[in-house]
Write a structure and sequence with these properties.
The structure is a single chain. By secondary structure, this protein is of the alpha/beta class. The strands form 6 sheets. Strands 2-1-11-10-12-13-14-15-16 form a 9-stranded mixed β-sheet. Strands 17, 18, 19, 21, 22 and 23 form a 6-stranded antiparallel β-sheet that branches. The chain has a 5-stranded parallel β-sheet with strand order 4-3-5-6-7, with helices on both faces. A hairpin with a 2-residue loop joins strand 24 and strand 25 (about 470-475). The chain is globular. The two termini are about 30 Å apart. The protein binds adenosine-5'-triphosphate and magnesium ion. Magnesium ion binds near residues 217, 221, 361 and 445.
Amino acid sequence: MHYTEITKTDVTAKAANMSDYDTTCTDFSWNDARKLIDGLPDGGINIAHEALERHVNAGHGAQIALRWIAKNGDCTDFSYREMSKLSNRFANVLRSSGLEKGARVYSLLGRTPELYVAALGALKAGCIFCPLFSAFGPEPIHSRMEIGGANALVTSSRLYNRKIKALRDRLPEMNTVLLTDGMIDGCDSLAALMNAASDDFRTERMELEDKALLHFTSGTTGKPKGVVHVHEAVVAHHITGRFALDLKPGDRYWCTADPGWVTGTSYGIIAPLTNRVTMIVDEGEFDVTRWYQILADEAINVWYTAPTAIRMLMKAGREAARSHDFKSLRFMASVGEPLNPEAVAWGNDLFGMPFHDNWWQTETGGIMIANFASMTVKPGSMGKPLPGITAGIVELTGNHATEVAEPMTIGELALRPGWPSMMRGYLHEEERYAKCFLDGWYLSGDLAMRDADGYFWFVGRSNDLIKSSGHLIGPFEVESALMEHEAVAEVGVIGVPDETAGERVKAYVALKPGYKTSDALLLELLGHARKKLGPAVAPKEIVFRKNLPKTRSGKIMRRLLKARELGLPEGDISTLESDEQ
Ligand code: ATP
Ligand code: MG
């Protein structure tokens, strides 16, 4: 599988925020990065101050911070000054409801302006903010609120009636519910309280290590974990936004992730605002025409999205993009799942630039490995570590982690801890947290390889590695080979027990519209994979599915494919998006 490397012109490289990777790595220190943070006038730090007040104080109050596209297509703009005042009001509402520094404020909202105001207002008030994805059912909501000890919730009356009302008795610490619309017994009207509140608020002075955010992981490999981040994380959000997403003040930027997941907060609120861009927020769900329209009509400069969405656009075919003009686009990035080389090449063809894959986790709080704007892209690779980040491939033997020197050796992807946005704990799971660290490394739970040029290549989750007749096979490699076939829209690959081989490779394939399942196509796909991968690695078995089971954040749940294959319990499926089999 060889894809041509995509090099950048000198002009593109020079124009990037980080024009020379090696020099920046040599010169970089987190202490210098901390100096990019404004800090509060009376000392201390607060993420919300870096996102809003610092720009208003510097004379940029009139710049649009958020352009909100409602489901029906109507747009509303909010300037940095307006966002500052609205979040001040929200902070005052929290205070008047008795919520002090350290209180846990949750949101259960679609992508509406209130969500952004609540996030920034809660941070200003020194509360810990936890956004929940609005499509969760009542039980996943309850367990996340219970784990975090929620004190307050901002939601809509529709979501309250459908999901919260019945479980309120089981949340004794949650005394405040603020409704963005309407009025229900036992709740307060956010609009009424906001109207009555002052738009002045003295941002709470926080220490670097004070808790700021609580995020739950996607639940791809098991029960979601509650991950705690602190105010100092803003240093990493800011610098990674600048280096890895190439955000420049004034850019029009679209992050398609929902704030219910860490990407939608770190790179859907904090990094863009601290870098003073104009964020485009779409309330609507994925829709091919709508997305191409937003990219073109909103003159997006920087677009941060995910492999599932890219694959859906690919599935829809080029025709769908034809009538649009993407001349404003300057940089495209992807995260959340391995990005198949086919998708990088497709992006390059259609938009004239590649998708820049980057890797990180809820735990790391910010981007750790990335394809940078000035750097040659090797399709299929996650890129190189951020300046200030030491990443390694380690072998785990006994109770030790030893770095592997030989290029292209599969091992666990590990990082030297110490960057500002690193998690400070898994809530109520100290033992699990402690297990993430060994011999001075943070162990990510992912398997990867590093090539001789220092690029990292994702192999799979450590639980997903397939051991077949003495070969170690990463599902990503097999999936990417199948993705190259014109009929294939999506693939999930697992290992299933096999008497002779130990495990054999099995692939679940969803087809693009216009293709029908048939024995002939099945044989063709088996042959295609065999040709690309060789008989030792190619799947022995392929089955067709209409859709693959995915998390609500868009990740293929291989553990579920496997559990179903083996007739085992499905485990925690709180983040499962409905899947049609
Ligand atoms: P859980 O930890 O609950 O099983 P999760 O790991 O999917 O869920 P997240 O923190 O949202 O939860 O996702 C981080 C993971 O997503 C990474 O550990 C990695 O497996 C995968 N991932 C993210 N970006 C990439 C990428 N660019 N390439 C490959 N995998 C990626
Ligand atoms: Mg994880």
